[in-house]
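To whoever picks this up:

The parser on our side crashed when reading a file containing two proteins. I've narrowed it down to the boundary between the first structure block and the second sequence. Both blocks are reproduced below exactly, byte for byte. First block:
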Amino acid sequence: MTPRAKYSTLLLGVLLVGIIVTSVALPMASAQERKNYFAAAYPYLVPPQGHFNTFVTNAITLGIYWDLMEMPLGMYIWHNSSWIKLLATDWKFDKSTMTFTVHLRKGVVWNDGTPFTSKDVKCTWLILYMMGHALFNYVDPKRIETPDDYTVVFHITSPVSPIILERYVIRTNVRAYKTYHEYCDKVEELLKQGKDRKSEEMQKLLQEFNKFRPKEMLVTGPYMIDVPSITDSELWLKKNPKSYFAKYAKFDWIRVYNGETPVITPLVLAKKVDYATHGFPVATEKQFRKIGIKILRPPTYFGPAIYFNYKHKEYGELFSKKEFRKAIAYAINKTETGFVSLGLSGKPVKYFTGVPELITLNWMKPEDLKKLEDYSYNPKKAEELLKSIGLEKKGGVWYWKGKPLELELMYPAEYADWAATAQNVASQLTKFGIKVTLRAVTFTQEPIEIQNGRFVMAIQFWGTGHPHPFMSYDSVFNMYNQKEYLGTGLIGMGLPMIWDTKYGKVNATKLLIDMGKSFDIEKQKEAFAKMALAFNDFLPIIPLWERLGNNPVLEGVRACGWLPFEDPLYKNSVYTDNFVVIMILKGLSLIHISSPRDLSTSRMP
């Protein structure tokens, strides 16, 4: 597939670079004499808790900057549905042979000099099979073929949306066979023995793999972690001269400050950070603008939601009643919650489908949209629903089974926007008559608490930055409802996937898989409509608001040549196809202020 993106504004960005005032002072060299660097910010855990097994929790992947290290085969351009080709040069879906064939870029090596080949791609996917990746609802793990070093053939077991297939295969970060061969070879051997991922042998191997800690991260990208530089406060990515893409990236170093919003805020105010993706509070954003830092509001295609513990010993029975969940949704003014949390970047949810608004509109017919319950703030309706399932209100307090209703809401402490959301939700529900106490948990631990069922209610994500609606659902249930959704794994929410809705009983897992089991986009849309309507009525989690980024952008201190904010590249998802990463990779616009201005011979094709 040839990318169709025509970046006229990228060319404009190059021209702008050429006329930037050259009298801007160069940054002071760091203590380590590192120059020509881009200053980023992303949270990570230091070793030994932080590690280099990038398949499992607490890996030092650095979020969006992972794509500059263990690169994917390509990155997606949202505004015109095209691709930037990275480790792959082309790929083809063949309906007649039920195959998806990828041709890899020749001449790419890992930073230790080992050639990048089809073995790396196959190894990556064998491990992801062991971990329960959704691709294998449609692809045979025993038939990932590597006919030569630069060809990978995936054999499809059932009709599948080409969008899902392409998105998963091309967008996944590829790891080194040299690092993980012991495990992917064992997975392949177990598959030959007829053992699948649910087998005792495979599950035992997975438990061992989760404890595997490589000494380093081998990379194909233009940057690699400078391991000695890792501290509690920062680490540095250094240029990988062996990377095929090194000649395109214009920064010699990327400095990554460690921390969530409270830690990074003063660094942004001090103009030590060129770009950050954190959720900055409204007052902080005003401070940024006041000192000349621009604010970019790109889509993230996700937001915070309320999760319930359906197996909770005291409240699981109540949470399992959809009338209760609906009452909670009606009792919260979600427009208020979004605004106090993130200002203009806290976008109210319009369609409660569990899928971001733009994707819902692209995939759902107008007549089906009209069937959706909107859950606008309506405390009177909330009261009616609670009374319908036997709750009583006495003295302004709701009682269930003769006891006042007192719930706990867990949230990630360092996420300033989600912390504000939790506080607002607790305040609103307490005023409504349901006492809610807050439990702040560090952002790295909160997902683990949910996965292990150690919570009452929690704030976590809904939606995801992927273009097919299947992925928004799969990301939630795969992460936080493994046992019920996958048949193995952690208990998470303990949410049964057979839902009793006004449309009848539905098998949500089957609906989800069926959403991708068709070559015909219209049939996929029909399956999505069924799932969206079921989600909307059953409301397994409660989406609160959809997040737009409020990303601070600093120009002229270290980096220059930012594209105009109206450029369509900024329609890319912040966290899954980040535009800054693409600008750095392409070497087309964003550069250090001391870099040569003539980029005509060093742009990525």
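<<boundary where parser fails>>
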Amino acid sequence: MTAVAAIQFSPMVPVPLLVLIAAAGLILLGIGLWRRANGVVFRFLFLSVLLLALADPRMVNEKREPQPDEALVVIDRTSSQRTGDRAKQTSDAEEALLASLDQQDNLEYRIVEVTDSTDEDRPGTRLMEALTSASAEISPQRFAGAIVVTDGQVHDLPKEFTDPDPENANGGDAKGKLPGVRGPLHVLLTGKRDEIDRRLVIKQAPGYGIVGKDVTLTYRIEDKHARKDGTTGRPSAKVEFKVDGADPQTILVPVGEDQTFTFKLDHAGPSLAELAVEPAEGELSTVNNRALVSVNGVRDRLRVLLVSGQPHAAERTWRNLLKSDPSVDLVHFTILRPPDKDDFTPLNELALIAFPTHELFVERLDEFDLIVFDRYLKRGVLQPQHLANIAERVRQGGALLMAVGPEFAGRASLYHTPLREILPAAPTGDVVESGFRPHVSKVGMRHPVTAALMPPGSDLKTEPTWGRWYRQIPGEVTGGNALMTGLQEQPILLLDRIGKGRVAQMMSDHIWLWARGYDGGGPQGELLRRLAHWLMREPDLEEEALHAHVRAGKLTVERRTLKDSAANVAVTAPSGEVQDLELQNVEPGLWRGELAAAEIGLYRLDDGEHRALVASGELNPLELSDLRATEAVMQPVTEATGGSVRWLADGMPDVRRVDPGRDLAGRGWVGLVSHKAYVVTGLNDIPLLSGLLLAILALGTLMAAWWREGR
């Protein structure tokens, strides 16, 4: 606490009026002196007393409490700061800096840490935002300055420091004009001069592609070096390509030139293409030698061939389902009569066109994504070779759906054809016609096709609330999984994988009762939709899959399986650190685990059977685009505030306090402004002239002037 005394004036009239009175009095006094009038001196004294009374001089005694200045210490802890020995440089500099600031008198400081941005619209190192926000909380009269420890890769500089137009850029002529920062800004750089960094840049990549079609990526290898030409002198480098973690392929490509990579989308949903270039000699880090591209595969048009063996009630159910999807091209044939039936009815009266068996099942079979046989039986229309072609089409990646009726149990069953090799159930020869409600089996409770049909929290003892069916074709399971059962736990819905393709078999033709709303109806639309999407390899309906996503800095891993347990998942972070994640069963068939995703980049997951890739933040983050430490980015900013840029490799500079207006940096030291701010805690105001004294002086000077003029 200090006390400071000073004389202050509190004019009783506006200062301009007071000046006007003084000027008028001086003019009259000058006239009197020129004319040598008597009493001029006493008139001057009276005027002085009058002006003094109007000015009201006072003795003011202030009690002041000194306020400490405040400084900011900004620490860059983004991903690029984990390169090389920068983390150690940062911690050593922070320790030395705080020790130096603790020794300064009348100075407080705040520590601001900058981490990777999680906002996709504002990527990179947002150091200036953190600095501006923190300095806004400090009074300009107390802000001593800021000291930043970073590698210099900052991505949120004000436009005036990044605008290529010289007329708009500040540069060193804009001293003190940095928005939001009202004091010196000193930058302490980690890393080393002349660092080498190679990166792989994706120049162009599509966001979507058609399943079965090729997509092309454009990329470029850039070698950043201290040379003026920006290269390390290596003319070419090896690049490795992988799609969805499959076997890689490697090619040799020139450095510094745009190249292309083409691959085929073989499934719907996201496909992750990973490109990696070999390290350069003496390279700082290989973390940005990889690039990721996610291309979402969509089906252009799903071509479905529906063959009905005879008109029946369920036929419309299948047709309505397939026709309701605008992405489906449906080709539907109903076999009304076999060629060997002779009732003398002309063929042109039975069908508008002849059944093009050779064209559909030989020439154009590969064009159909899904083939549906709805209560079809052997009638000589399709020859064994045609059915063998269908079986081979399934093995090569096609899909077959068999909706059977009573004919499947007889001698004309399609089971007694080449299709038997791919069907998951064999008929017993019986047909059961009795009321029952289909049940979701134990496996079906875990399978994504049927798990959602039952209410949440249901188990095997939960009785379904949907309507009854009245016909079932018993079968012996020979492969696949039975997701739904009927009487005596006989299978009703079976799914199986054959080679690269898939097969579904429905052992009843009474699903149309649900569509008609009989006995309360049922979820036939949801069931058939999920069944068709599983046949088309929809990623979300895979029964054995490993998925992951990153939201709000948290990595969530989900394992879908039909087994009773799920193995732990090895999670490899972008830095190479491996963590073992234990999964917990959250619902039948679904296991889940979570861990913090603090790093930006690609996380790799492996449970021994399945692998998955997931990116935290951007696929190719701006933060890792250039890992070289540089002074070029922050140099204009420090010059605008009177600060400086120092390399920690040259040694830790001293911290000094300087008065306002003095140099803020010198050889081996950086300066923080000493404002000597204070707060007035008390005020003692004493008038120097009392009213009585002023009256005596004024009256005395008037009487003296009257006396002198009267002589």
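After patching the parser it read the second block fine. The first strand starts at residue 2 and ends at 9. The chain has a mean pLDDT of 83.
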